[in-house]
Amino acid sequence: MSKMQPEAAVLETALAHENDAPSAKRKPLFYALGVAIALGAGGYMAYDGLIASRYISTDNAYTAAETAQVTPAVAGIVREVRVADTQAVKRGDVVAKLDDIDAKLALAQAEAELGRAVRRVRGFVATDGNLAAQMAARASETKRAEALLAGAEADMERARVDLARRQALVESGSVSGDELTKARNAWETAKANLTASQSQLAQARAQHQAAIDARAANAVLIAGTDESGNPEVALARARRDQAQINLERTVIRAPVDGVVAKRSVQVGQQVQAGASLLSVVPLADVHVDANFKEVQLPKVRIGQPVELKADLYGTRVSYRGIVVGLSGGSGSAFATIPAQNATGNWIKVVQRVPVRIKLDPNDLATHPLQVGLSMEATIDTHSL
Hints:
The protein is of the alpha+beta class. It is about 50% helix and about 20% strand.
């Protein structure tokens, strides 16, 4: 009996060690799991604090450019087209020419009108001198008429006195009837001469005033200006300049550097002013319109740096850019048929707002982009 007790004790001890072995093995696993969870939580917090909360990204981004429309400023028949689609052009390069015969004739007519206006104004200046001489002559005639009137008045007074004397001497017989008749005739003649002198003076004064008025009217046409600044000459010169500009506009030039696109003009076509002939895409000024979700925009500011990648080149090429503006509304707000949210079956949809990003010119020159390409944009919102 005494021998069996130690054996039982040994057996119990062995069983106890067997039960503690799994527990001892599980403890390191629990420790490892706890450390992994802690590291994961720390990593997530670090990612959220350092990366996720700092950078916002979207692949809903596309290249765009301010495309220049080439339109004629004057109507005409297309005589020559010098470019084709996809052709590179520089600002000022000739892309098309219109028939210029009508423009040349209009210019010749305008130049003739200008010459005639100059001669007409010179005539106004010469007329002013002539009218001044006429004024002086009419003034002299007026003075002469006044002198003649004074003489006629004196002659009439003398004839009146002579007639009165002879009438007083008729009764005494000192004056014959013939002398009285002559005296009466002299008085009548003096009276008629006075009336004629008065009329002549009135006429001289009227002619003098007419000369004054004529010179004043002519002076209005040349007052306060010289020949080159005269309104008639200035108007004719402006029409000549407009005709010259219209002639120059028969040569249609590229407004910007870029690549020709959407060419629709053909030789012999009759085009109207303002009609679209072709477009020039300025590839050196390509920008990116990135459509970010509205929940991503609270920290977006103008001037923040942007990293961009193009599907054209893949991840091996990165572009640098900066935020230059945010649209005034979401894309749906400017849609042709905007969403109507006042219906009973309304479902909230997260909206996207276009953000304009300017690309670095050096990056764009090294790796050119076309309009409409897909891009991926990442904005650093903590830089400002």
